[in-house]
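Fold this sequence, please.
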Amino acid sequence: MQLGVDMDGVIADFVSSAIKRVKDVWGIELTHKDVQNTLFSEVVWAKLSEEQKVLYTSPKDLYRIICPKGFFEELNPLPGAIDAIEQLARFNRIIFVTKPLEWVDCPTEKRNWLKKWLPDVDYTVMFVDKMEDKKFVHVDVMIDDDPRVIDFLTSAIPLLIEQPWNEEYRKDNREVMTMKSLKESVPYLHQMDSQLRSPYLF
C-alpha cells in the first residue's frame, strides 16, 4: 500500500515544543488540552493581552516567534512513532505529506528531521501549499491529525490520529476511523494491506 503520513501531530511532537516556546516568550502557561484549535497560533493569540497583540498584525505572525530557526529540526518524535514508521515501511511505501510554514528554512528543517530519525527508512517527502492539496496525493491511506484534511479527501482512506484539537470533530464524525497514535494503527494497517493483497478478494 501507499501510505500518506503527516508529520506534525502524527510523528513529530510540534505542540510540546511550541508550548514551551510560548511560555519562554510570553510567559503564558498552556497545556495540550488547551490546544483545541488546529491553528496553534490562534490558541496563543486568544491568550495574549491587547498590549501584546498590537505588536503583530495577525495570529499567523506569531509562528515566526514560536518557531525560530532550527525549531523543526529539534522536535521530539511522538511516542512509538519512529518504530511504527519502521514497521510500516517494510511492507508499504511511505510518503510524508506536510504543509511547511511559509518561510524558506521550514522544508529543509523537516527533511533534516526525517534524516535524523529515520536514516534507514525509504520514504518520499511531499510539501503542499494548502491543506486541501493533500487530496491530490495518490495514496491508499492518508494519516493525519487535522480534520480539515480528513474532510478534503476524496479517494484515499482517511485515518485520523487522536489529538485534543480534533476531539470535537471526532464526536461529530464517529464514522471516521481514528487511532490514539500511529503506533496503535500498525496492526490495522498490516491487516488492511494483507486483505488488499489477498487473491480471494473480488
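Strands lie at 2-5, 93-98, 123-127, 141-144, 157-161, 178-179. The domain at 2-13+75-197 is CATH 3.40.50.1000 (Rossmann fold).
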